[in-house]
Amino acid sequence: MKPMRIVYWLYLMVMVIFSSGCLEKKAEVSYISPEEQKFIIETATGFLDSLPVTVTDFVCERSAGGRHDFYSEGDYWWPDPENPDGPYIRKDGQTNPENFVAHRLVMIRLSQIVGMQTSAYLLTGNIGFAEATQRQLEAWFVNPQTRMNPSLLYVQAINGRVTGRGIGIIDAIHLIEVARSIEILAQNKAIPDQLMMEIKDWFSEFVTWLTTHPYGIDEMNTKNNHATCWVMQVGAFARLIGNHEVLTLCRERFKNVLLPGQMGNDGSFPLELERTKPYGYSLFNLDAFMTCAEILSDQHENLYEFTTPEGLNMKLGAAFLFPFVKDKTKWPNEKDVMYWNEWPVRHPFLLFAGRAYSNQEYISTWQTLDGYPITREVLRNLPIRNPIIWLYDKPLN
Questions:
Q1: For residue 31, with 0-12 CB atoms within 10 Å meaning exposed, 13-18 middle and 19 or more buried, which class applies?
Q2: In the predicted model, what is the mean pLDDT of residues 191-219?
């Protein structure tokens, strides 16, 4: 039997033997089936020898930035058939397959590798998984030859119109689980102090850029899921570096701007329902809201329980959308113009709300859904894909 398999089965035996003293942990680890735990460990083992791939490995000639700048192009912008050489035109909800997506894909790859390896470390206690993340993190955030610049000046550019936009900041939501993984590894002393300091320096610069650059301020002040994702991103990165001032800013925006500005009296998100993909965007925004509550809640303030004077809260949002996840045929609005059949998947709002409100039906439904989708558009809008790192912060054995 392979050494990693031995560790895995020993772990399961320990869980059974000591279950009487670990009821809470046993209950939560049961959210993830033994088969999936095995899949996580085996996948993470397969990543052990994976070489880092960063933004410097792909250069797009249309980018106005340099080799270290993250670059992407607006999803819903297409060549104008009446003026093929002119500025692109917008088709809301319809993704142009010819756009440059390489930097997005390598960032998703980073989150997949680091998230999986950190999950395997938590399941097994094997420090080898934690050590394997260091090569990826060093390449992305430290090595001057391969690191990404801690800014997003050239995101969601539009051919013939702009070289970058604040709205493109949402592309970096896939660093959230990277930040969460770093948090876990740091508190378990599984990352060398010097590397940890350099990684935190990168995220500190990024938080400063996100909160002071006009693009960041524009994104913060948008009205829909983009504003939610700004709080989700900035909150995750600020928590990693211990920036309490920015964390307070994020909590206040959650309570005083996001909830009253976006949620309807029935728990829906009217701004998302107006889009050409109302189902997918409603799911995405609720996932982001719940992730904000997960990241920003602490011993002093529980955002899962926060309610506005108008009665708006996270429980209402989950109650509105859950029936349409359980049975999509009941969705009362228009179908999405693209990717209607690909949703729902294993949405984090079900896990977070299920835990927060002790709702077993949410958890049971979450368990039945696809936790490892492969469709690019789904991955782009599903930044939380590694549940183990949200259930635990220390190795289980």
A1: middle
A2: 98
Phi-psi category of 242—alpha, beta or left, where left has phi over 0 and alpha has psi -120 to 50?
A: left
Amino acid at 114: V
Maximum distance among all alpha carbons in the chain? Answer: 71
In sequence order, which ranges of 213-313 are alpha helices (DSSP H)? 214-220, 225-241, 244-253, 259-262, 270-273, 278-296
pLDDT above 80: residue 360: yes
CATH H superfamily, domain 3-391? Chondroitin AC/alginate lyase (1.50.10.100)
Which of 307, 329, 326, 325 is CA-nearest to residue 316?
307
336's tokens = 């999405």
Q: What percent of the chain has pLDDT over 70?
A: 93
Of residues 66 and 94, more confidently modeled? 66
Q: Which residues of 253-287 are buried (b: 16+ CB within 10 A; e: fewer)?
A: bbbebbbeebbeeebbbebbeebbbbbbbbbbbbb
Spell out the residues 6+ positions from residue 137 whose beta carbon is closer than 8 angstroms to its own: 114, 178, 182, 191, 195, 199
Q: Are 311 and 280 in contact (CB under 8 A)?
A: no
Asked if residue 70 has pLDDT above 70, the reply is yes
SS3 assignment, position 80? strand
For the record, the structure tokens of 63 come out as: 């980018």
The angle at the Cα of 281, spanning 339 to 349, to the nearest 5 degrees, equals 105
pLDDT at 23 over 50: no
Structure tokens at 184: 């876990």
